[in-house]
Design a protein that fits this description.
- By secondary structure, the chain is α/β, with parallel strands linked by helices.
- It has 2 domains: 258 residues, Rossmann fold (3-Layer(aba) Sandwich), CATH 3.40.50; 176 residues, Rossmann fold (3-Layer(aba) Sandwich).
- The chain has 17 helices and 13 strands.
- The protein starts with 9 loop residues before the first strand and ends with a helix.
- It is globular.
- A 7-stranded parallel beta sheet has the order 3-2-1-4-5-6-7, with helices on both faces.
- The model has no long low-confidence stretch (mean pLDDT 95).
- The structure holds uridine-5'-diphosphate.
- Uridine-5'-diphosphate binds next to α1, α12 and α13.
- Belongs to the UDP-glycosyltransferase family.
- This is Glycosyltransferase.
């Protein structure tokens, strides 16, 4: 067959509509743009309505069936997943038809691996699909083994896969060890592989050195491109001068307040605390963290989203932390992690936060909540050596005294020195991966070449 060369390929970027999924796909789009690929970001009508107008990005919105309130307005995970599939596939079909009627070719759809029906829609039009995995390969591979029935649920024994460390039951993703919880989300995770063999590419937001064993295994199965970490270039390789932030915040950051406060603090003296964009901590857990931070007697910057602030202990912000702590509703996390006064990151271990800590060389204290976080926390602690985990009690609560002891380990003890050294090592490797000639750089180049040559 004669090779067809598309000079400026056009791809749709279609993330799952949450902050932690939009960031990596949108970032990857910036790398593509810099290599001559035209991109259009497809979000939902609801997400689109919450964003400040961004003129530099080509954007289109489709309906997920929840145009007024988005995911959080759905009754249950099942109802969201079902409606998104039903309404979303029709809406995506209409979008593609609209592009076609305008003579605007689509060469590929890069869709979130959670949205497998996007590939079915793409194939109806003869468009190639690239399944984009936003979670760690280790997590994906556990889900793959569940999908194939090799790991059977309910789980009754630790999990050992490929070259990874053994995961105790509670260290597997919550949808695996807490069988039956959030059936809609569980189905999304386990079904990511249902039609993957028909995807032209499988893209994954990690980097070779970080997950070598699993990546080698995945390469044998699919046409894999390892393209991460998808962190704005100016924090890593600095090749894209204008790429200084994610540029896609669903929450309004208290940026200046955070930076002014951090500027005043000595080097490596601040504990930064955040549980990401989705986790909802119980009031009990919130209280333990609040008193754990004050008992640690360190400077701390804590992100508590507006909807979660009501769970803070009474008078905590006004009376208890006036000098040592700052609580904000959102920050520009990358700028906080990159700040020299930040000495460690207390994190829920969402995979973006995980990659950001590694890429910016910041040691972590993991307090995982659900989904892939317990597995990421284990990897951060035991596999990558960049931190510790606060052990939860029998009720799943990380108690204040354990937090105090972890803060001491990382901020004062030898364990912290080692974790920081390892984090620094990963930072260099992450930068090397996306820098010219690095493993992710080469995979992105190959992807673009294949797009341009319609290969
Ligand atoms: N984030 C941020 N400001 C905050 C908290 C989080 O910019 O105050 C960003 C963070 O940098 C990351 C994303 O939100 O890119 C959260 O993704 P992650 O996978 O860590 O967690 P999720 O929100 O999906 O649970």
């Amino acid at each position: 067959m004669a090779e067809h060369i598309t000079k400026t390929p056009h791809v749709l970027l279609f993330p799952f509509p949450t902050q932690g999924h939009i960031n990596p796909i949108f970032q990857f789009g910036k790398r593509l743009l810099s290599k001559g690929v035209k991109t259009t970001l497809v979000t939902t009508i609801y997400i689109n309505s919450t964003l400040p107008h961004n003129t530099t990005t080509n954007m289109e919105a489709i309906s997920d069936g929840f145009d007024e309130g988005g995911i959080s307005s759905a009754d249950s995970s099942e109802s969201y997943v079902e409606t998104f599939k039903e309404v979303g596939s029709k809406s995506l079909t209409n979008l593609i038809k609209k592009f076609q009627s305008e003579g605007n070719t689509i060469d590929a759809i890069i869709y979130d691996s959670f949205i497998i029906w996007a590939l079915d829609v793409a194939m109806e039009f003869g468009i190639k699909g690239a399944s984009f995995f936003t979670q760690a390969c280790a997590v994906n591979i556990i889900y793959y083994h569940v999908h194939k029935g090799i790991i059977t649920l309910p789980l009754d024994a630790p999990v050992s896969v490929l070259g990874l460390p053994q995961f105790e039951c509670l260290e597997t993703p919550s949808f695996v060890h807490n069988y039956g919880s959030y059936p809609g989300w569980s189905e999304l995770m386990f079904n990511q592989f249902a039609n993957i063999d028909q995807a032209r590419w499988v893209l994954t937001n990690t980097f070779y050195q970080l997950e070598e064993e699993v990546i080698e295994w995945m390469r044998k199965m699919w046409k894999l491109k390892v393209i991460g970490p998808t962190i704005p270039s100016m924090y890593l390789d600095k090749q894209l001068e204008n790429d200084k932030d994610y540029g896609f915040s669903l929450f309004k950051p208290n940026h200046i307040e955070c930076m002014n406060w951090l500027n005043d603090k000595p080097e490596n003296s601040v504990v930064y605390v955040s549980f990401g964009s989705l986790a909802q901590l119980g009031p009990d857990q919130m209280k333990e963290i609040a008193w754990g931070l004050t008992d640690s007697n360190v400077n701390f910057l804590w992100v508590v989203r507006a909807a979660e602030q009501g769970k803070l202990p009474k008078n905590f912000v006004d009376e208890k932390i006036p000098r040592k702590g700052l609580v904000v509703t959102w920050c520009i996390q990358l700028d906080v992690l990159a700040h020299e006064s930040v000495g460690c990151f207390v994190t829920h271990c969402g995979f973006n936060s995980t990659l950001e800590a590694i890429s910016l060389g910041v040691p972590v204290i993991g307090i995982p909540q659900w989904t892939d976080q317990p597995t990421n926390a284990k990897l951060l602690d035991e596999f990558w050596g960049v931190g510790v985990r606060v052990r939860a009690d029998e009720n799943g609560i990380a108690r204040r005294e354990n937090l105090v002891s972890c803060v001491k380990k990382i901020m004062e003890d030898e364990e912290g020195v080692v974790a920081r050294k390892n984090a620094e090592k990963w930072k260099e490797l992450a930068k090397g991966a996306v820098d010219k000639g690095g493993s992710s750089y080469n995979d992105i180049d190959e992807f673009v070449f294949e797009l341009m040559h319609n290969a």
